[in-house]
């Protein structure tokens, strides 16, 4: 025998909405953890040096996940679980450049990408990825970049909501 529950909304014990259901069957949490935090000014990358990329702006950031003091994602108190993160770093490059970008949790690398650029033309290249991560209050996530080039020149990490960012949402 099948049981059917016909509701538009489920509330928690305090009476506030926890989930809602559309007529199409889409389940929506009432107060989801969501963020898209990005670098809003180009950042110089000195030769043969690692640089933390400042994520100064937020397209959206619920629950105070955007740490505007340190320009990164910091998990606020009362939060823990699993996040789905996607990230991108876009940098200027030219022939002979050795480049790397990292997604870090609490200063430790959790995703690393390396590219050795061999084209003669100056271009921008992107590092991108996604990952499910566990988190607890106080954890932080940031982007770190390294570049080394034959002319010892400074390169730029490119700003913009679609260029250098971390996006995420809670999945559990």
Notes on the protein architecture:
It is built from no helices and 16 strands. It has 172 residues and is mostly beta strands. It has one domain: Jelly Rolls, CATH 2.60.120.40. The strands form four sheets. Strands 6, 8, 9, 11, 12 and 14 form a six-stranded antiparallel β-sheet that branches. A five-stranded antiparallel β-sheet has the order 7-4-16-10-13, with no helix packed on it. A three-stranded antiparallel β-sheet has the order 1-2-3, with no helix packed on it.
Short account of what is shown:
The protein is an all-beta fold and 172 residues long.
Task: Provide the descriptors you would attach to this structure in a database record.
5-stranded antiparallel sheet, mainly beta, elongated, 56% strand, Jelly Rolls, 16 strands, 0% helix, 6-stranded antiparallel sheet, 172 residues
Q: Supply the helix-strand structural class.
A: mainly beta
Q: Into which percent range does the helicity of residues fall?
A: under 10%
Tell me the β content: over 45%
Main β sheet profile = 6 strands, antiparallel
Task: Name the CATH architecture.
Answer: Sandwich
Rg over C-alpha atoms, rounded to the nearest angstrom = 20 Å
**Number of separate structural domains:** 1
What is the average per-residue confidence, as pLDDT, rounded to a whole number? 89
CATH class: Mainly Beta
